[in-house]
Amino acid sequence: MKISRILHAGYVFESGGTQILFDPVFENPFSRNCHAFPDVAFDAQQIRGLRPDAVFISHLHDDHCSLESLDLLDRSTPIHMYCLFDELFGMIRALGFVNVQPLTVDVAVPVGAFEVIPRRALDADVDSMFQIRAEGLNVLNVVDSWMDPETLVQLRPYAPWDMVLWPFQTMREVDVIAPSRAERGPVALPEEWPEQLQALAPRYVVPSSCQFRQEPWSWYNHALFPITYRQFAQAVGEWLPAARVVRLNPGVAVELTAAALTPAVPLPWVLPLGEQDVDYAYDPDLVPPPTADIARRFAPLTADQEALVLDFCRNGLLQRYEDMELPEDSYFAAPCVWQLSVYDHAGQVQQFRYRIHGDRIALMGDEEAPAWLTAIPMAKLYAGLALGESLTSMYLRIDGAPADADIVDDPLIRCLFNDAIGAYQAAQLRRLTEKQ
Length: 436
Hints:
The protein is α/β, with parallel strands linked by helices. It folds into two domains: 271 residues, Ribonuclease Z/Hydroxyacylglutathione hydrolase-like (Metallo-beta-lactamase, Chain A); 145 residues, Nonspecific Lipid-transfer Protein, Chain A (2-Layer Sandwich), CATH 3.30.1050.10.
């Protein structure tokens, strides 16, 4: 069984003349501002010449399901995807793929020499994992999900696993969105990992799924990614003395047999750029820069784009908020003054203050101080409205929220992402269709 890394959670599996792609992303950057780490480029012409026997997509997030990457593949390629939302399947079919199939947990899909079995992840409404079998070998691709306890019981009898692709990075999304809540001090790996990996007892462990950073200037690069490759390898070595931790950089390939793991011919269409054995550098004491400074990093919007953002702040946001159903335990169930600060490319701010009580919201003046503060660069608010950009790359920042309040209760977050299924892929499909 030949296993090659594409990027992030992307892999190529080959056996007996069968080739399968998992979560293929052929873009750098991808998801708008996820920059490959280590740095790579892709030979699009060679990728267009690929004829994989199938593509498997673990879930709908745009760093796993990218229409601009799928657009490089032959339209006869079967696409198998775990997703509970029909909209995503419709978008892939609209791109021209003729064989698009939903995956069902625990229902095996035979593809040539392989058998691929989707397994339940902890968040079964979103994620899935893959058990990949061929030549008597068992590989578990955990993708970037968390292990469901019942699934671990289900997978334990297959131990020892030949290889586990384990998501080694625990991204600190809340810490960068609400820095006042950020934890300080050394970073510990999740306490459930030793038991889970020891139950699987793999021969080889690949630190998987997190091969990107934000823009080179971004403070997120030292605050969002707390775990290093070095720390993960050291911990796994202590938990599983008989296992070997194998780092697979983009393009790198290995040959897995029952007896050994050996280097294989790299993927010719993944082009490494510069140093490849890079590592993360977490700084728990980093002071985040002001949102005004971050906003200056982005190009100015056009007049029409700026008008769209400002109209949303004055009108569209209010309508979206009132159209949603407020959770009973919401911080905003009680009367509250909320302030939204929007910074343009020059670092200039426009502030909008709202009075919120339950499902009601209204613009107000500055006669009362806000209790909840949200700040965002105007360019990123536009990207969220028009381009489907995800929350973790928008540099949105929350201050003043009490410790017991859920930050996703933030009115802007709710208005941008409530029921926004496949927004990124929908924006991709519009762009691709316009090119035709």
